[in-house]
Specification:
The complex is a heterodimer of chains A (486) and B (350). By secondary structure, chain A is of the alpha+beta class. Chain A folds into 4 domains: 92 residues, Uridine Diphospho-n-acetylenolpyruvylglucosamine Reductase, domain 2 (2-Layer Sandwich); 111 residues, Uridine Diphospho-n-acetylenolpyruvylglucosamine Reductase, domain 3 (2-Layer Sandwich); 185 residues, Vanillyl-alcohol Oxidase, Chain A, domain 3 (3-Layer(aba) Sandwich); 58 residues, no CATH class. Chain A contains 17 helices and 19 strands. In chain A, a hairpin with a 4-residue loop joins strand 8 and strand 9. In chain A, helix 1 packs antiparallel against helix 3, helix 9 packs antiparallel against helix 11 and helix 14 crosses helix 17. Chain A is globular, with a radius of gyration of 23 Å. Chain B has 350 residues and is of the alpha/beta class. Chain B has 3 domains: 67 residues, no CATH class; 144 residues, 3-Layer(aba) Sandwich (Rossmann fold); 115 residues, 3-Layer(aba) Sandwich (Rossmann fold). Chain B has 16 helices and 8 strands. In chain B, the strands form 2 sheets. Chain B has a 4-stranded parallel sheet, sandwiched between helices. In chain B, helix 11 links the parallel strand 3 and strand 4. Chain B is globular. Classes of the chains: A alpha+beta (486), B alpha/beta (350). Chains A and B meet through helix 2 of A and helix 2 and helix 3 of B.
């Protein structure tokens, strides 16, 4: 390998034969490992936060990797973890990019992906019962054979699994503006708490496990509502000369009675790497179920026309739909690090947020771009990105500083971080004060030993204050650097 | 491979995480890391990756680097590479003197500006394939030759990260072609085609030989009405070979040929063209059981369509798919075989 700086690498974990033997006895030799290579592979995700980042993690490598195939194995592994006070880091597709399934204190990386069976499809009662590791592709293929669809998908559907999306909340995704969020689709969850309790939960109790990031326990089975497959989809894309026109149109379209399956906004920079436009316009793409009853054709034409939007043609529009799982990831191909922050914000506040980000783009000269996906008729997941190289630490940290400022601004106006994971746990007390209390109480009940995915949601190794000072300094330095050395 | 083995060690994301860790903050990559980089070389992960990560190139470069810094090749793979060096083929047990048996009665000139590259599969296992190429080229009044001193194209060396061995093979073949006055090479093997067209120019900067695949030539004949077919009643699906499809972007030419056969109905599998699933053929070198599981998975996709059979352009795909379809009603057919059966007796305009 190339010769590079080697620092701060934790000492290899001393293998504890007792623990390893116990785990082997539960899942068999092939599905447990303490090899360094396997621990490296199972301790990271696509997060731009470097895996060795000590401010957030005390020990970034898991001590053991265990792949479970059924609920009994989960129960037994949790027993071993409680006995030895070992953290459990539940792991689905590890695609959230917010270090949701990265160890902070070593422990067991518990991979639930091998639990990928589709247990039951009921066309009569319109539900599907699955294990948590099932991929969206597998689920969709099975449902399609019966003329059914889940209807809602995360933008990371190519690598995510259903259990992971539930743990991350599943508020916004492709299909959610029309069919409703994952919460509205989840009929019941079978869970195994960190305390060993095995329960099937329904109704309001589901709230605890949705967006719980595995800090309470492990989801072992999911029952979801399904829909009939629509005949087809039709996408309409419009280019706008200015941000205000785009945001006005987006708000008005979102409020129409006929709801879209998918609504996306993006700046010219992001489009350049995804579906190039080359006209200096910002883009609104909106997809409906292809039927006269579901497409608000006249309203679309009137709203976009009054905001000086220009229809970008059928070919461009169809490609926007084809790229629905790819668009926000496409720029990654052209940069070392695609850093981003995701904010859940009301559609009325999107213009204010994007105007502020555009202003930072100019004042701090950050290589910025943005993307937004309507999650519900009222709220949008806004993804603010910067194309940088994480190896250039000052640029990295100052760009993160801008994103931090944007998050603070969002919280002030009622927005919240979309994904919590590890990094956004510092915002919990400000963005989700009630939820924080609720989760702290639930944590005491479900995981009194504190083994489940520690250091996120209810606690955090670093603090908001510390990060605030660091980011303020870095952002100021970035601004100063425009003048120094000229 | 991940779908079969269910370990992130065998997923592209997992391998990238490991490479990043060992290339930056950690020392002494374990021996196992190199072994994990050997995969089906099918490039499906690359095709579906929204971030466009060029994993095939990354795996290749990483393998080369790991080998240079002391990692060891697995014994079975080393044996294959040694055999290539000794006999010019990865098929252990086959000898170089048997390579040209298929051409013995065809009276092919050893020197010609157009040469057939029969590849190891065509030379040793499926001699019908180069024979049909000769036949078709003759219909086109192309007097193609065959240079019997050809050796393996080097695909295995390249895939294994054996840069030195690959360079030797490339130089050997190139010198042989130039000596025979070759400026066009026609091959029926997707793997050979990809290696010759994609990788040879990296070793020979002024590489000046045009590489053609049989399907391109035949599709052109179909388009021009030179090649017509007798009818074949039935519903068939087409399996895209990874080397011809994702690696080289040849998707439509074989379909044009198939659709020119009267009575033959082409039914596409859900995963077709760039989304095609691998047949697992290449994995036989690493793990025959894994190769079989991957092959069965692809055969099941075809079975669900209720078709009569699967047509493919690649001998390696043919071999693995026909083996895994042995207990089904599916007939697995090479495109060359179809042409051989149906075009020879048809009205080829001489």
């Amino acid at each position: 390998m190339t010769e590079t700086e080697v620092e701060n690498v934790p000492e290899p974990t001393t293998t504890n034969p007792t623990i390893l033997d116990k785990l082997k006895a539960i899942v068999g030799q092939d599905r447990v490992s303490d090899s360094e290579l396997e621990r490296v592979v199972y301790s990271g995700d696509p997060a731009v936060l470097p895996q060795y980042h000590y401010r957030w993690k005390a020990k970034y490598l898991a001590d053991f990797v265990v792949r479970v195939e059924n609920a009994n194995e989960i129960e037994e592994v949790l027993k071993v973890a409680r006995e030895h006070k070992l953290p459990i880091v539940p792991r689905g597709g590890a695609s959230s990019c917010m270090s949701s399934s990265s160890p902070t204190r070593g422990g067991i990386s518990l991979d639930i992906k091998p639990m990928d069976k589709i247990l039951e499809i009921s066309k009569g009662s319109m539900f599907v019962r699955v294990e948590p590791g099932v991929t969206f592709e597998k689920l969709d293929n099975a449902l399609e054979k019966q003329g059914l669809t889940l209807g809602i998908y995360p933008s990371s559907a190519k690598s995510a699994v259903i259990g992971g999306w539930i743990a991350c909340g599943g508020r916004g995704g492709i299909g959610t503006p029309y069919y409703g969020s994952l919460k509205e689709h989840t009929l019941s969850l079978s869970v195994i708490g960190g305390n060993g309790a095995v329960l099937t939960i329904e109704g309001d109790d589901l709230d605890l496990f949705l967006q719980s990031y595995g800090i309470l326990g492990i989801i072992s089975e999911v029952k979801l509502k399904v829909h009939e497959i629509p005949a087809g989809y039709k996408t309409f894309s419009y280019g706008f000369r200015d941000l205000e026109g785009l945001c006005n149109a987006m708000v008005q379209v979102s409020k129409l009675v006929k709801k879209p399956i998918y609504l996306k906004i993006a700046d010219e920079e992001l489009q350049k790497y995804s579906n190039p436009l080359g006209s200096g316009r910002v883009v609104l793409s909106v997809t409906y179920i292809d039927s006269p009853d579901t497409i608000p054709a006249e309203e679309l034409s009137s709203i976009t026309g009054s905001n000086e939007g220009v229809y970008l043609g059928d070919e461009f529009s169809e490609k926007e739909w084809e790229l629905r799982y790819d668009a926000e990831f496409n720029p990654k191909e052209h940069t070392e690090t695609l850093m981003f922050q995701e904010i859940w914000v009301s559609i009325e506040n999107v213009y204010e947020m994007l105007s502020a980000y555009e202003s930072y783009r100019r004042s701090h000269k950050i290589p910025a771009m943005w993307f937004g996906m309507l999650g519900s008729p009222e709220a949008m997941r806004l993804e603010l990105m910067a194309m940088i190289d994480a190896a250039q630490y000052l640029k990295f940290i100052s760009s993160k500083g801008i994103l931090h400022k944007m998050m603070k601004k969002a919280i002030k106006s009622g927005g919240v971080p979309y994904t919590i994971g590890l990094q956004n746990s510092i915002y919990m007390s400000r963005a989700y004060p009630d939820r924080l209390l609720e989760m702290q109480e639930a944590k005491d009940k479900w995981d009194p030993d504190g083994i489940m995915n520690p250091d996120r949601v209810t606690t955090c190794m670093t603090s908001f204050r510390r990060m605030d000072v660091l980011f303020a300094l870095a952002a100021a330095f970035r601004r100063l650097s425009r003048y120094v050395g000229k | 491979m991940y779908i079969e083995l269910k370990s992130e060690l065998d997923s592209p994301g997992g391998k990238l995480r490991a490479l990043r860790a060992y290339a930056t903050k950690m020392r002494n990559p374990p021996v196992e890391l190199l072994q994990r980089l050997y995969c089906a070389d099918c490039r499906r992960c690359e095709a579906i990756c929204p971030a466009g990560v060029p994993v095939t190139d990354i795996w290749h470069d990483a393998k080369g680097q790991l080998l240079k810094t002391g990692a060891e090749m697995s014994q079975p793979l080393q044996k294959v590479l040694d055999w290539i060096e000794k006999e010019g083929t990865p098929f252990v047990g086959y000898e170089s003197e048997d390579r040209a048996i298929w051409a013995e009665d065809l009276e092919l000139p050893p020197e010609s500006n157009t040469a057939i590259f029969s590849g190891c599969m065509g030379s040793f296992w499926y001699p019908d394939q180069p024979e049909v190429q000769v036949d078709m080229l003759r219909k086109l009044k192309v007097n193609a030759g065959y240079v019997p001193s050809e050796v393996c194209c080097g695909l295995f060396n390249y895939w294994a990260g054996d840069d030195k061995g690959f360079e030797e093979v490339v130089k050997k073949n190139y010198a042989m072609f130039k000596k025979a006055g070759v400026d066009h090479i026609v091959t029926g093997c997707g793997g050979c085609y990809g290696t010759l067209a994609e990788h040879y120019p990296h070793i020979i900067p002024d590489f000046d030989i045009d590489i053609l695949h049989t399907v391109e030539v035949l599709a052109d004949m179909v388009r021009n009405g030179v090649l017509t077919f007798e009818g074949l009643e039935g519903r068939y699906t087409f399996h895209d070979s990874c080397h011809l499809g994702r690696a080289l972007g040849i998707y439509e030419a074989p379909r044009e040929i198939i659709q020119a056969v009267p009575g033959l109905e082409l039914i596409e599998m859900k995963n077709n063209r760039a989304n095609s699933n691998c047949c697992g053929g290449f994995l036989t070198v690493l793990d025959p059981d894994l190769s079989e599981s991957v092959g069965r998975r692809r055969v099941t996709e075809a079975e669900e369509l209720n078709v009569d059979g699967i047509i493919t352009t690649c001998v390696s795909c043919y071999k693995n798919l026909s083996y895994n379809a042995r207990d089904t009603d599916l007939k697995v057919m090479q495109l060359d075989e179809l042409i051989l059966d149906k075009a020879r007796a048809s009205q080829v305009e001489e």
